[in-house]
Amino acid sequence: MINQLLNQISKDLKELKDAITEHYELYISAFTALLFTSRQTGYTRKELSTWNKADLLPYKISKSETKEESKARIISSFWRRYSLIECVWIKVVVKLLRFGINEVLIVD
Q: Per-residue pLDDT for 23 more than 80?
């Protein structure tokens, strides 16, 4: 009885792993899709730009990007969109800054 249960659990876990592997890109794209505006992050574009220049955001937007990379990441420097991962990271950075953690420690 216990062996049957363990075998069923093992089979179910393998099926789950296969399903996750099969849909890996779909799952990842849900977290990395550029959906949120600066207003939706809860911070101003100026604050976000300042943090970007200080390397506090996970994906630095720089002038040295190729045209294709720039288009993929932002519409323009003023109308940048953020992914769910970036929104969560922004919230973490703000909390750390409010706790008095130095920017240098956050970046490293």
A: no
